[in-house]
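Re: your question about Acetyl-CoA acetyltransferase

S., sorry for the slow reply, the queue was backed up all week. Below is exactly what I fed in.
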Amino acid sequence: MASVRRARKVAVVGIALSDCGRVDSATPYDLHAQAARRALADSGLDRSAVDGLASAGLGTLAPMEIADHLGLRPAWVDSTSVGGATWEVMAAHAADAIAAGHANAVLLVYGSTARADLKAGRRTAGLSYGTRGPLQFEAPYGHTLIAKYAMAARRHMHEYGTTPEQLAGIAVQARANARHNPHAMYRDPITVDDVLGGPVIADPFTKLHCCIRSDGGCAVLLAAEEYAADIARPPVWVLGSGTAVSHTAMSEWEDFTVSPAARSGRLAFARAGVTPAEVDVAELYDAFTYMTLVTLEDLGFCAKGEGGAFTEHGRLTVGGGLPVNTDGGGLSACHPGMRGLFLLVEAVRQLRGEAEEGRQVHRPDGELPRIAVASGTGGWFCSAGTVVLARD
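Result:
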């Protein structure tokens, strides 16, 4: 009879960023390797411990090309690609694999030179998802990715009275959090008037409502509980995760004011055995300000339609009631493409208490945060992945 493995606890044991921001002299492979080496060093584990790899977005045969470049021969791989939610979905897959005994230590790694490639003329600013399948019915009308997010934001404004000023305030608070992050690409303070007065990209979004374009990479190493005694940093435990997908064509999206995070979050919190009220810090995908607002609602931090009011009065800053995107997020820190892995890195950094002075979150009693959530969104609210993390 086949043996049955006991489900194991899973921890994040290593995290790292590659060089980020403006990186003109590196390839995406360089950034993958740099982030991977730094994450392994952060963990204190040897490369030989890694028997699983998750990677997407680079190479013809991802993640095999990355494994080859890193000198790894993994027995477990994942190349799931669902846009910005990719890394939370991969983290969920990896945690399940480790808990089931199918892998012991899984490296999630990403790197992109999106900004440098554009500056050097190696790519254009336009991003096309093709015109096959359901998208063939929207592509002839020039319906861009940002236009889809803008439509959703406008619907929320129509349904619930959300204001341009409330959306702009999200960008202002992200910049305030970036101020103390030496790795953030933009750190100078901005005001609501600065946001509203910028050039319109897709109504109601002006330039500062939209994520920046940067280079960068990062890596996260997940491992079984047996490794906790051998690692260099305190483990951060994966309490629970959830994933969900929605539409591809906007015509198939039942409600523009509800993202798939409503399902992924509900699953993640139930599996973690915690409630949104217990979360000390949230790292949320923020390619556009509306993403932050609707994800806060859908994860249960406030009721549907109350996101605008919930984000006011500095609530999302490091010293606010619910610190969100404490590194500055995609709106100010970095956004090299699929940013979801950066959310996990920052969540772990906060739980470990390793953030720089001025952006390290503390609970009202002065203690370090105990529970964090990282929630990624992909496509135009097409997919979501949510991971709940905790320190001992």
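The radius of gyration is 20 Å. Confidence is low (pLDDT under 50) at residues 1-6.

Happy to talk it through on Thursday.
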